[in-house]
Write a sequence for this structure.
């Protein structure tokens, strides 16, 4: 069982930056990957980024490539999402999640077994 607590969300202006944190507790030794997802009002939850637990490979949605960076601090058991050059369309609730095993692809929410409670990111134009 893994539990996550996200933080770092808030209000930013277009072009600004925010850094989200996802602190994990519990036994995450069997996690294959840690991902960030987001869900805007009336839209489906979509994958934003993912980091493989085995080799540290990172993956990004096309919409955030070059602007967002996923990283981790093993000592703190925390995963981060640095978000730069924010756009109004980045407005959403952001969730971190862990997958015991990725089978069909990192971007599918159905691959993930544990979820945080989410943190709101609002970007004004």
């Amino acid at each position: 069982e893994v539990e996550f607590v996200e933080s770092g969300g808030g209000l930013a202006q277009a072009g600004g930056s925010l850094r989200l944190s996802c602190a994990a507790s519990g036994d995450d030794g069997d996690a294959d990957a840690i991902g960030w997802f987001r869900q805007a009002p009336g839209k489906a939850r979509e994958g934003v980024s993912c980091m493989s637990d085995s080799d540290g490979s990172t993956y990004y949605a096309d919409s955030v490539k070059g602007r967002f960076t996923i990283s981790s601090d093993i000592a703190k058991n925390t995963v981060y999402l640095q978000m730069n050059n924010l756009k109004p369309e980045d407005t959403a609730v952001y969730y971190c999640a862990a997958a015991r095993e990725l089978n069909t692809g990192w971007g599918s929410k159905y691959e993930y077994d544990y979820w945080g409670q989410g943190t709101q990111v609002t970007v004004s134009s």
User: Anything to note?
Assistant: The mean pLDDT is 93. The radius of gyration is 13 Å. DSSP finds no helices and eleven strands in the chain.
